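ok so dumb question maybe but i'm new to this and my supervisor (M.) told me to 'just get the structure for Rhomboid family protein' and walked off. so i did the thing. is this what she meant?? sequence i used:
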Amino acid sequence: MAENPATSDAPVAPPVCPRHPDRVSYVRCQRCGRPTCPDCQRQAAVGVQCVDCVAEAARGTRDARTPLGGRRREGRPVVTLTIIALCVASFVLQLVDPMWTIRWYFDPERGLEEPWRFLTASFLHSPGSYVHIGVNMLALWMTGPFLEQALGRARFLTLYALSAFGGSVAVVVLAEPLDAWDVGVVGASGAIFGLFGAVLVVMRRLGGDVRGILVVLALNVVIGFVFAGIAWQAHLGGLLTGVALGAAYAYAPADRRREVAWVAPAVVGAVLLAATLVAYAAAGML
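this is what came out, is it supposed to look like this??
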């Protein structure tokens, strides 16, 4: 049988990368078999795969989760380190510019007119005491990475912020208006006590030994009442906030964790806001 010259002698087009048709590639993806250029190649266990197959495989892989639903991440505790960096940077600014402390510290009288002080005070520390910031940052480093891993970054950050807010709220509610409402409060202690409370609940939920954290809590509570110049109200407010929010996160049903991550902070925040408004109203400031 005679061959058709038009088909037998036609040149065969070289394989090209589907993503980059102008690039010839004789290397093929081990998964889909398509040509893949050097820019689209990804090293696999055997051979290479194209970027499309790698992305498809990643979409089908479920994120590793901790027992409490946090996304298990490798590497450094980003949120914890960021908070420490902000506190240290703020402390340096306090040393350089005394107005920095005046601009951001909290007291109930200023807090009513400038509500951001309820949170900003937690990034300040006593400029005359390196021990103050040192102890707080050490406590944050001891508790933060564990909670950040167990709860996930978003829930951990919410826990820290609301605990700081709860500490300031407790100062408004528990301090004597005529004697202490014009006394400035600085320090991350309210937020740190919130982490202490959350660690206590989370470790108990996971079956861990809580005796060590109980000892640390007891010592800090005693120090707060024995030594002058310490806002024990902020410690107590942060602790109660941390226990409440930590319990909501730790004991939420597995299929309701996403909803609880939104509802629990909203409820805790609403309770703290209501307590603040009631205290101001009772003092005749509303």
